């Protein structure tokens, strides 16, 4: 068992201990101050910080790599969010190999994507967003090493109550069950040379490939959804140095003809027919 795997197990064990202590305090009244229940959370946070500094940070030897150039995983008009062009780790953490991850949301026409609303509507159906059902494409010659699409596509979390629910309750519970519940339905491709591509938050039942399949650039893999730890239908894309996001480190990428779009930047990805062979 690797050190990172052991750290992940300990981290989730401490989180689970917190929930057990809270439940015990409510039902049994053990007689000690309630804030003692927070000790496992503090320890889990300290462990997470130490683990990231120890083996996941971008300046660690295995993570210090030149960007890998791949084809864009989408076609059409999209907007970048949480981009590594602006900061790393792009999502505020090195966990799950996310150091150089990027989120993209489809915006085929200005104003067609529902925006954030403070209070109402609390949530929207996934199919209200133009990204939902958009084709996701292979970025290189590769082998499919992971492919799953059984998790449901949930409602959006694009109101203030919905976002708070996602951040402080839903996200914490998903984190207890590991990377699969965080990334939702997903595909992992082995690109060779120790590089793997992860596509997260896929639409339920949309897989067009199976584990073991060989794919070529531009080949349909699945469709964009809203499964896992996701606020709205979008693609979360990242490169990693291993197939398991629980233990992998992030690898920087650049998209052919696009580069790495900055946060909020609108970009146009060419269709598969117009991409260079």
Automatic annotation (TrEMBL):
GO terms for molecular function: hydrolase activity. Keywords: Hydrolase, Membrane, Transmembrane, Transmembrane helix. Its EC number is 3.4.-.-. The keyword Transmembrane helix applies. It is an enzyme of class 3 (hydrolase). Pfam families: Peptidase_M23. The chain crosses the membrane at residues 9-28. The keyword Manganese does not apply. CDD domains: M23_peptidase. It comes from the Bacteria. InterPro entries: Cell_wall_metabolism_enzyme, Dup_hybrid_motif, M23ase_b-sheet_dom. Residues 179-241 form the M23ase beta-sheet core domain. This is M23 family metallopeptidase. It comes from Streptomyces bullii. The lineage of its organism: Bacteria, Bacillati, Actinomycetota, Actinomycetes, Kitasatosporales.
